[in-house]
Design a protein that fits this description.
CATH architecture of the largest domain: 4-Layer Sandwich
Order of helices and strands: HEEEEEHHEEEEHHEHEHHHHHH
Strand content: 15-25%
Distance between the termini: 66 Å
Radius of gyration: 25 Å
Structural class: alpha+beta
Number of strands: 11
Number of helices: 12
Helix content: 40-55%
């Protein structure tokens, strides 16, 4: 047997054993109270127009993002919480990827979990099938609502109005999937939220169909690990993420010589995040590269006044072909700096 073949065989055996161990861990758990007490409220949802799927969550627990929300383009989304068994996330996605519906996947995992009475898990698949389980030993107030292409679920809440308000807000809110899920979380908090207060939040949105490129399939992945107002901070980050999307669109417009569209996208981004010097800088750079040096000067002046280090960067960019190798142009740009470097 060739060395390469032997190594491949060993690797396959290890993969099989690892997956078997992973599954058995869920089925043979003997803990009364598992080690991830992520009491929280969340929403899993699918946008019927775009096919996008996602999860949004808030909790009074540090760094909820790595535990509760799971999503994969073309497959589905999972929220695992209460005394959370993290493996419901990857295993749920794996089962849905194999062809099982969300209800089938959840039923299978619950049947192997001797501690399912303390779990709260929601799943949605790429076709919009939804399933949710709230164990009878989840800490009150606890409950869930399954609707058309969504599920809201909560445990350890101040009152039993939290998840109904979440459902109502998601259905009534207009906009993108992310905006509707954020509105749902806000409604839950307004209704009373986690009895302990607020600490962390997260949101994930993936495409309805996979491109085969995971870095393109994940549309949004934001986390607030520890903050007195995590939802407010999450919305701030979401606004910045949208602004950078406009910057990307502006860059792509420049690539195809659509100057008008590029300037429109840059202006939109800067209006959304007016204090962001990074956006202003690359906007100004783009103006120079399309021959509108004079239009770039007021922008450069503002940037250099607030942070002179950007002037240093201007001098370096011609070396890597990001600005013209024209000393007169570079000198003209640097002339607006209060302190030339």
């Amino acid at each position: 047997m060739k060395v390469e073949t032997f190594c491949l065989l060993v690797l396959l055996i290890l993969v099989v054993l690892t997956k078997a161990t992973f599954t058995l861990t869920l089925g043979e758990s003997k803990e009364i109270l598992p080690s991830h007490p992520i009491h929280t409220y969340s929403i899993v949802a699918r946008d019927t127009a775009t096919g996008e799927m996602g999860v949004a969550v808030q909790s009074h627990w540090f760094s909820v993002g790595p535990v509760v929300p799971w999503a994969e383009a073309g497959v589905g989304a999972v929220a695992t919480q209460s005394f959370a068994e993290i493996s419901y996330g990857p295993l749920g996605l794996e089962l849905m990827k194999s062809g099982k519906t969300a209800p089938e996947a959840l039923k299978e995992l619950l049947s192997k979990d001797k501690n399912n009475s303390v779990r709260q898990v929601a799943m949605i698949d790429v076709k919009g099938n939804v399933a949710c389980h709230t164990g009878d030993k989840c800490i009150p107030e606890a409950g869930h609502i399954i609707g058309n292409n969504y599920s809201v679920q909560a445990n350890l809440m101040l009152n039993d109005k939290v998840w109904p308000e979440m459902a109502s807000a998601f259905v009534k809110t207009k906009g993108s999937l992310a905006e509707r899920m954020l509105a749902s979380l806000e409604a839950g908090q307004k209704a009373g939220g986690d009895i302990r207060g607020m600490q962390s939040a997260a949101i994930i949105v993936v495409r309805g169909k996979s491109t085969g490129k995971p870095w393109e399939d994940k549309i949004l992945d934001l986390r607030v690990e520890d903050h007195p107002e995590p939802l407010k901070e999450l919305k701030r980050l979401y606004n910045i993420a949208l602004a950078y999307e406009h910057m990307d669109k502006g860059d792509k417009a420049i690539e195809v010589n659509d100057t008008e569209m590029a300037l429109k996208e840059y202006a939109t981004a800067e209006k959304m995040v007016p204090d962001n010097l990074e956006m202003k800088f690359w906007h100004a750079i783009s103006l120079v590269n399309i021959g509108k040096v004079d239009e770039s000067l007021p922008i450069f002046k503002e940037i250099f006044t607030k942070n002179p280090n950007w002037a240093i960067l201007v001098k370096r960019l011609p070396m890597v072909d990001l600005l013209p190798k024209d000393e007169k142009i570079i000198e003209k740009i640097l002339s607006v700096s209060a302190k030339k470097r």
